[in-house]
Amino acid sequence: MEIRVLRYFLETAREGNMTRAAERLFISQPTMSKQLKELEKELGTKLFIRSNYNIRLTEAGILLRERAEDILSLVDKTEAEFKSLEEINSGDIYVGAPESESMSLFADIVYKLQKDYPKIRCNIYSGNMQDVCEKLDKGLLDFAIVMNYVDLTKYNCLPMSTKDNWGVIFRNDDILSKKNLFPYLN
């Protein structure tokens, strides 16, 4: 399985159309089609359900899409790390984080870091805790900002002093907006 062919596969899966995917990758549609048929032959399974104007992924195709995204993300990260080896004060940092008040603290730190080291880039993956921890475990993230309910026994941890504030909002005409919900929220 070649990295180039995985890129062809992912672009085709994203576009849902082999001709458009080939155009985006600047290759011919027959070349794209041939490479993807060889990939299906190599894996011994159909990856696409083809129709006249579009394609859909089979269950095997959905599995390969998930794996290909992880593989290509790791390949891209590795290539970037090797390109930045010559400059110690440059490179990419990959961070997993939820939508949280902690992100404002982290954003301030990144801002200050980039003022001193403008060649450092911060890539943020926003997702649920399970996805973030899975990407951290696979080496796709350098670190993650997580909530208290993650099992921290398998990680090194640095506590942050921020606290999230949550609220409930309703449309003005919603029946619940007229009720006192505080007894239920305490």
Please state the second-level CATH architecture of the largest domain.
Answer: Orthogonal Bundle
Element string (H = helix, E = strand): HHHEEHEHEHEH
Low-confidence stretches at least 5 residues in length (pLDDT < 50)? none
Instruction: Please state the CA-atom Rg, rounded to the nearest Å.
Output: 22 Å
Number of domains: 2
CATH T-level fold name of the largest domain = Arc Repressor Mutant, subunit A
Terminal CA distance: 55 Å
Quick one: CATH class of the largest domain? Mainly Alpha
Structural class: mainly alpha
Largest sheet: 3 strands, parallel
Total beta-strand segments: 5
- At the fourth level of CATH, the homologous superfamily of the largest domain is Winged helix-like DNA-binding domain superfamily/Winged helix DNA-binding domain
Mean of residue pLDDT values: 83
Beta-strand residue percentage: 5-15%
- Shape call: extended
Helix content: 40-55%
Strand order of the largest sheet: 4-3-5
User: Helical region count?
Assistant: 7
